[in-house]
UniProtKB/TrEMBL annotation:
Keywords: FAD, Flavoprotein, Metal-binding, Oxidoreductase, Zinc. Residues 38-217 form the FAD-binding PCMH-type domain. The lineage of its organism: Bacteria, Pseudomonadati, Pseudomonadota, Gammaproteobacteria, Oceanospirillales. GO terms for biological process: respiratory electron transport chain. This is D-2-hydroxyglutarate dehydrogenase. It catalyses: (R)-2-hydroxyglutarate + A = 2-oxoglutarate + AH2. Belongs to the FAD-binding oxidoreductase/transferase type 4 family. It comes from the Bacteria.
Amino acid sequence: MTAFAHAAMEQLTDLLGKRLLTDQESAERYGVDWTKVWAPSPCAVALPETIDEVQQIVEIANEHGLHLVPSGGRTGLSAGAVAANNELVVAFDRMNKVLDFNEFDRAVTVQPGVVTQQLQEFAEEKGLFYPVDFASAGSSQIGGNIGTNAGGIKVIRYGMTRDWITGLKVVTGKGELLELNKGLIKNATGYDFRHLFIGSEGTLGFVVEATVKLTRQPKDLTCLVLGAPGFREVMKILHAFQQDIDLTAFEFFSDKAMAHVLAHGVPKPFDTECPFYCLLEFEQLSEQVGEQAMAIFEKCVEEGWVLDGVMSQSLQQLDQLWQLRERISESIAPHTPYKNDISVSIAKVPDFVEDVDTVVQDAYPDFEIVWFGHIGDGNMHLNILKPADLAKEDFFAKCNNVSKWVFEIVEKYNGSISAEHGVGMTKKPYLEYSRSPEEIACMKAVKQVFDPNNVMNPGKLFDV
């Protein structure tokens, strides 16, 4: 350990005491996310409890040349929270309180370590609803959600995390505390720096407080699971329902995804086997809305877009049908999947999927491709399962080729290499497929303003 590093650790110990963790178990717990490519190797883990402590940590980092990596629920898929190069992990687990609630603004102020499900349950207690929802809601934290602008299964109706943040307190890479937008709905006073920090993956500073707006609870949720003969028919189903009904979700998955879920113990929705399936959800606020949904369903059958389908008749059946979509990741996990999270504009999705299928199958015909995702917002999850007789190292080497081909197709369709999981380290080499050199240069200039010494999550998103 250098003299500078030793002095920094002494200052951090004086500041945090036993909340500065240096044991190997803590390093392995806090220094990673759900990616497994880089081994965790932080110098220590800091567990601040106040904004003042966060500021002091950043000041010590600037003084001694430490690099800081934020750690929330550690559920990311881009290695954005991995500390692999002797960084100091700043974990927000102890900053996990709901600070304030305003019933007139329908807004709640929380610390960054509040778990998504905790916020959802708080909203429910108040008769309200926090609609940003995804599989990791039980462990992901609000600070991390803000850092990646998390989306999930309700984006078609409710938008991304960005759409629900009305105020932020952030500690910049210089240790300054900024209060951004102050919970206002309307504020026309120049640059809204709040939106720079949302989705910045902790590269500009740390979120230490957030004001989140809530909405009314959805009522009488009903879902349909429909089987379609092809992907283009799925798009026609989406268009038909969106013309007349405000959907709260529209998910899709392939027959291969369905097969894995059924093998995992989820009941089959109907007997007809179909190449593609979609799950759509809406509020059945009146008998008329239910009748309208059935009329659209019947039209889709007449047009040949739907081969079979089922509508939920109870909350229990609603939950059961959602299992078909929500348990896909769990059911394919034993097959060592290569995962990619991408998006294009909705109209381009069928051609995009067709192009990806063709290039992967032509090169590696033994690869099983499993598609699913939030088709209502153009976000697809590409999963390729490792053949049983192929070594893991060989499989991931071939998947590196797949990544390049997929991102070339993303670029062709003016899409995004990361729809909702961020760039981190895993997609950093491919940022140029979604962002121009001029944009990347501007992003680096913005980082220089807020974090001139590059202490905040260096090596993520891009290199400076």
